């Protein structure tokens, strides 16, 4: 077989060499399930002293395994290769590789014994690096891998359905906004249109009629929360969907502000308050509502339904009273009003009245935002009901108002005209009733604005088009306080800018609302064109959709012409919101631009600003994206623009039009998702069904795109909602980042069946059926159940009687550790047929960690141990919940049971069947996995605080996982009590001196872990415990110097100078790659020379000791119970006596 590669290979930071490579003898040996990386950059000095150095001769160059992937198109950064020639040597550098799957079951291997031999002509190139002073090797995402993985027998849910809303409760939530708009629309519309106001409002009803079908078609095709943002995200580009998101968010802002301002206006009309008082009452109402939402008090369907009924009753009573008043006084008032000349142009009055009157249907667009919580088929009825309500109230009330009140009254009481109408119809009692009703329903509108905006902003922040700090939660109530505070600031500033003028506010409201409604009509048109194959129960013609767009655009333009100043306010706020979102969409590009200009400012290089920028870019690009494929064709390469994805918000499944177009998927990820990691997944039922060219084509794509790591995964199973849910849970990838082809009408599943977050309503139904006896424990478990997005994030209260067959397996500083059988088993999936949780059959063997003296367990302790549970980071021992001993009242943590710790493996007398080189690779692989998991925790602001080899555990047929996060102080105390538990040898010196745990103290502990893994030594074997505070473990001379240097870097005296874990991971990955490639002979010799025998000592190894953090009184007790000791030569139990060859790596 003969292949030709012609590409750029960067050697160092300044030199790029072009290598026309002709393969004359090809053989491939790769374990594509592993992880490949490279060592630190040291190529500059080895390829010639001069930048313009050239090699004109043709050399025979031997490429070691995996070197076939060296050729990458337009690659300006280092690649994986160590090239040996007669005259020179080049070593690659600074690779970034993502972690392999935590539960890799098997990988495909290709075995050939003959190394690659290439005829290569080396030439220099005139194309320099864009950043000659700073290395750009970080842009290389890493080589893709091929995986075969097996999913758990019990799958995760495809769509978890709890109690859904019926027709009228669903109508009431949006209907409150819709019917409440009567309170502020009729006055404004009558002032503008005069006697023609009823005609204008009737025309509004006619315009709204086709939107029943337009929005019903969108809702039936894409039954997803998210409104117009989600619709356009699924039918257009991401930036256009961002426009809709900004409009929808501005719609929520104006909803809250207009509702608050109108409520205080009605109160002012009742008590004759000054404008100054009204202004600050409105601001106060917004602040109080924000406080209520921050405290976690949310709207409910029952409350909304009650308010809806009361409001409809009040308006109906008002209409009846007005009819009676009209009959009593006759047509005299109506005839007098008809004589009003208005503007002198009836058509213009009707036109402007219609434009302003469109404000009377606000709320019509909100029902789709909670469509997933509605029963099947209810959304169409909800839209129909809202049109009927609008038709029943708006125009008739306007006519009745003109029949009993002169037009001059409308001009004086424009902002509280409905309560004034009640006074004219039946006296002060009805006026008071209408005022109370207005305050209640408009206050609910303010709350709806805050709650709706919180959900929308959270969705957009999760989609990475708003800053991630908005996702931080309030520890007390679990609410997103930064979202709420930011929304409050926008509301207050908008109200202040317009000076409290309700007319201007209503104009901005109308523009934003009409823009959102127009986006729905545009989305319907795009849905027909791009997602025509999607199943839907309602269809409208393209002409109807275009009429909707035209009518709404006409109303939008009319509002702007009538009051141009409102457009200025609208542009200011829309511009601010859209600019923020646009910056987040181009986040990586902006950071790369900063990196480019930073390269020019050499004086700033010493401040490590470049490292910060690179770290931010990597954090952004580390999130994998999944693309499902069922064919091996990649026939559309580099042609045109990528077809946009269909993204399901809460169903959270994305779609591509061309399933066979792998390259289109890559182009989309490259342009829209800011991700550097793409996983192609092929589901198969029989091994024979796998297309033969999948892996070859995968390698081609992986070489085409050096800035994206492209993996190929084979999973046995059927493509259905349950399998997709299981894959999402197994890979820890949200369904919003998973893509499939756009299904046709014969597709056996509905789009809505593929997603669904863990439905909190099912848990709420059981809240009254259990209690732990501790309000802090109850609140934490309830909050985590409500916030869970998958079965793996669920936390339960587990009664002690549900645990059987206890046996104690250990004891630490917190108490005893038992293994027990959980009779019910953990929640594993959702049973669609029974609408109930499915649990692991036959019970589950779990670890029960009992906390001594924990009967009065603190909330801070609970927050510490469950912080990582919320993060959903792979590589952590799963936590199932809490229980309590009936006799001692001590609480216990229920987790996965892992029978083997890393400490046991390190000190096991079992001999490895591997040679020295492979043995070192196994050690490096373990450390790489741990470093990667710990780095991900640090990126989320989570510190382990008690890392040591005993807390790194392994189940059968799995990799090592980290456990016991945050367990560094007693359950009945706080972190500030200055009493911590931990393994003294692993504890950083600054922590022993009284400083808090930090990421840097975890890095120190990881350095000790490296020492223990490579030397098998028992730390501090001959040092008195009283002196251990200031003494670091001794590094043996026979330890390879690179390892010694790495450990020393992790033990820097100044914590801020310690290596970051991503740097540690890159170094370990580089060593692992060099050992695998057999590329660095010096490094290989050092590792082979490393003494792999046990370093024995009679010294006791302390599992957990209490560390008194007062610097002057630091002491350690040498005496421990026998269960606290670890004997490195004690035989392991039969189920845990393993060696490194069985680690499944």
From TrEMBL:
SUPFAM superfamilies noted in UniProt: Protein kinase-like (PK-like)
Membrane-spanning segments: 182-209, 277-297, 304-328, 350-371, 392-410, 430-457, 478-498, 504-527, 539-561, 567-590
One cellular-component annotation, GO: membrane
Gene Ontology molecular function, alphabetical: ATP binding; protein serine/threonine kinase activity; transmembrane transporter activity
Pfam families per record: AA_permease_2, PK_Tyr_Ser-Thr
Lineage top rank: taxon: Eukaryota
Residue intervals of the Protein kinase domain: 803-1068
Keywords recorded for this protein, A-Z: Membrane, Transmembrane, Transmembrane helix
Compartment(s) where it occurs, according to its Swiss-Prot or TrEMBL record: Membrane
Record membrane topology: Multi-pass membrane protein
Start and end residues of each stretch annotated as Disordered: 1118-1145
InterPro entries linked to this entry: AA/rel_permease1 (IPR002293), Kinase-like_dom_sf (IPR011009), Prot_kinase_dom (IPR000719), Ser-Thr/Tyr_kinase_cat_dom (IPR001245), Ser/Thr_Kinases-Pseudokinases (IPR051681)
PANTHER family, alphabetized: SERINE/THREONINE-PROTEIN KINASE TNNI3K-RELATED
Protein name per the record: 2329_t:CDS:1
Species this chain originates from: Acaulospora morrowiae
């Amino acid at each position: 077989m003969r292949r030709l590669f012609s590409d750029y290979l960067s050697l160092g930071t300044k030199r790029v060499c072009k290598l026309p490579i002709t393969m004359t003898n090809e053989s491939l040996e790769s374990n594509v399930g592993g992880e490949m990386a490279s060592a630190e950059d040291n190529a500059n000095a080895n390829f010639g002293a001069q930048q313009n150095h050239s090699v004109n001769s043709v050399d025979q160059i031997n490429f070691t395994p995996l070197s076939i992937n060296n050729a990458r198109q337009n690659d300006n950064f280092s690649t994986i290769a160590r090239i040996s020639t007669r005259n020179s040597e080049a070593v690659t550098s600074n690779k970034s590789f993502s972690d392999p799957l935590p539960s890799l079951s098997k990988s495909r291997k290709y075995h050939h014994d003959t190394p690659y031999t290439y005829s290569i002509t080396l030439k220099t190139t005139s194309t320099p690096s864009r950043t000659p002073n700073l290395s750009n090797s970080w842009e290389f995402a890493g080589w893709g891998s091929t995986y075969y993985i097996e999913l758990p027998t019990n799958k995760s849910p495809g769509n978890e359905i709890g109690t859904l809303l019926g027709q009228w409760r669903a109508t009431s939530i949006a209907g409150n906004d819709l019917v409440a708009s009567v309170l502020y629309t009729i006055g404004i519309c009558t002032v503008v249109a005069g006697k023609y106001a009823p005609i204008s409002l009737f025309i509004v009803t006619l315009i709204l009629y086709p939107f029943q079908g337009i929005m019903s078609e969108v809702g039936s095709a894409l039954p997803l929360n998210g409104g117009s943002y989600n619709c356009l995200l699924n039918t257009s580009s991401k930036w256009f969907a961002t426009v809709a998101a900004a409009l929808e968010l501005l719609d929520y802002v104006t909803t809250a502000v207009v509702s608050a301002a109108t409520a205080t206006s009605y109160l002012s009309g009742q008590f004759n308050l000054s404008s100054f008082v009204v202004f600050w009452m409105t601001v106060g109402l917004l602040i109080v509502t924000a406080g209520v939402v921050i405290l976690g008090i949310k709207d409910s369907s029952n409350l909304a339904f009650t308010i809806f009924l009361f409001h409809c009753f009040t308006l109906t009573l008002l209409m009846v009273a007005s009819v009676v008043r009209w009959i009593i006084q006759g047509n005299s008032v109506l005839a007098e009003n008809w004589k009003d000349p208005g503007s002198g142009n009836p058509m213009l009055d009707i036109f402007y009245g219609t434009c302003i009157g469109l404000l009377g249907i606000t709320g019509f667009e909100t029902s789709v935002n909670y469509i997933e919580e509605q029963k099947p088929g209810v959304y169409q009825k909800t839209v129909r009901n809202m049109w009927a309500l609008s038709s029943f109230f708006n125009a008739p009330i306007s006519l009745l108002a003109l029949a009993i009140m002169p037009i001059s009254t409308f001009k004086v009481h424009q902002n509280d005209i409905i309560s004034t109408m009640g006074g004219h119809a039946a006296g002060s009692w009805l006026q008071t009733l209408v005022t109370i009703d207005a305050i209640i329903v408009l206050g609910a509108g303010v709350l709806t604005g805050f709650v709706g905006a919180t959900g929308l902003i959270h969705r957009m922040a999760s989609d990475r088009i708003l800053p991630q700090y908005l996702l931080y939660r309030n520890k007390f109530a679990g609410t997103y306080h930064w979202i709420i505070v930011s929304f409050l600031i926008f509301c207050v500033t908008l109200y202040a800018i317009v000076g409290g003028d309700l007319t201007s506010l209503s104009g901005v409201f109308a523009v934003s609302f009409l823009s959102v409604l127009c986006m729905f009509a545009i989305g319907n048109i795009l849905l027909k064109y791009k997602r025509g194959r999607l199943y839907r129960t309602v269809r409208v013609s393209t002409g109807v959709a275009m009429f909707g767009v035209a009518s709404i655009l006409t109303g939008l333009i009319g509002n702007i012409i009538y009051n141009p100043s409102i457009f200025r306010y609208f542009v200011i706020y829309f511009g601010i919101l859209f600019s923020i979102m646009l910056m987040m969409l181009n986040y990586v590009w902006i950071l790369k631009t900063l990196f480019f200009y930073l390269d020019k400012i050499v004086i700033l290089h010493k401040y490590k600003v470049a490292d910060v920028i690179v770290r931010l870019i990597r954090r952004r690009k580390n999130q994998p994206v999944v693309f499902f494929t069922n064919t091996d064709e990649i026939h559309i390469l580099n042609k045109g623009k990528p077809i946009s994805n269909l993204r399901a918000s809460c169903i959270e499944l994305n779609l591509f039009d061309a399933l066979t177009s792998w390259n289109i998927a890559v182009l989309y990820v490259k342009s829209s998702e800011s991700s550097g990691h793409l996983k192609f997944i092929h589901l198969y039922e029989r091994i024979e069904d796998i297309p033969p060219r999948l892996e070859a084509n995968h390698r081609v794509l992986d070489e085409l795109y050096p800035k994206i790591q492209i993996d190929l995964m084979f999973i046995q199973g059927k493509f259905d909602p349950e399998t997709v849910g299981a894959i999402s849970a197994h890979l820890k990838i949200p369904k919003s980042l998973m893509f499939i082809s756009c299904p046709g009408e014969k597709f056996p599943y509905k789009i809505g069946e593929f997603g669904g977050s863990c439905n909190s309503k099912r848990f709420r139904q059981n809240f009254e059926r259990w209690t732990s006896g501790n309000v802090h424990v109850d609140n934490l478990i309830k909050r985590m159940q409500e916030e869970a997005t998958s079965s793996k994030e669920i936390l339960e209260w587990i009664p002690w009687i549900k645990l059987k067959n206890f046996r104690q397996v250990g004891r630490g500083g917190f108490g005893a550790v038992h293994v027990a059988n959980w009779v019910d088993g953990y929640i594993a999936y959702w049973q669609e047929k029974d609408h109930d949780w499915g649990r692991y059959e036959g019970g589950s063997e779990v670890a029960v960690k009992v906390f001594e003296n924990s009967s009065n367990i603190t909330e801070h302790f609970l927050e510490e141990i469950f912080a990582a549970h919320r993060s959903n980071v792979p590589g952590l021992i799963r936590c199932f919940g809490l229980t309590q001993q009936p006799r001692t009242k001590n609480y216990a943590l229920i987790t996965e049971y892992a029978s083997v710790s890393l400490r046991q493996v390190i000190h096991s007398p079992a001999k490895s069947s591997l040679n020295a080189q492979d043995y070192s690779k196994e050690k490096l692989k373990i450390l790489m996995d741990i470093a990667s998991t710990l780095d991900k925790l640090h990126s989320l602001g989570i510190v382990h605080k008690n890392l040591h080899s005993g807390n790194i555990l392994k189940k059968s047929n799995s990799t090592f996982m980290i456990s016991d996060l945050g367990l560094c102080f007693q359950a009945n105390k706080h972190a500030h009590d200055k009493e911590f538990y931990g393994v003294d040898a692993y504890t950083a010196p600054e922590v022993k001196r009284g400083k808090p745990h930090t990421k840097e103290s975890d890095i120190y502990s990881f350095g000790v872990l490296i020492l223990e893994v490579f030397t098998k030594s028992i730390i501090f074997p001959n040092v008195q415990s009283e002196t251990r505070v200031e003494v670091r473990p001794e590094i043996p001379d026979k330890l390879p110097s690179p390892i010694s240097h790495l450990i020393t870097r992790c033990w820097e005296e100044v914590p801020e100078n310690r290596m970051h874990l991503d740097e540690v991971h890159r170094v370990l990955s580089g060593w692992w790659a060099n050992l695998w490639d057999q590329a660095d002979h010096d490094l290989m010799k050092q590792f082979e020379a490393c003494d792999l025998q046990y370093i024995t000592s009679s010294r006791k190894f302390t599992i957990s000791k209490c560390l008194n953090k007062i610097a002057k009184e630091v002491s350690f007790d040498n005496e421990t119970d026998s269960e606290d000791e670890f004997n490195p030569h004690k035989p392991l139990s039969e189920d845990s006596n393993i060696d490194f060859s069985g680690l499944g790596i």
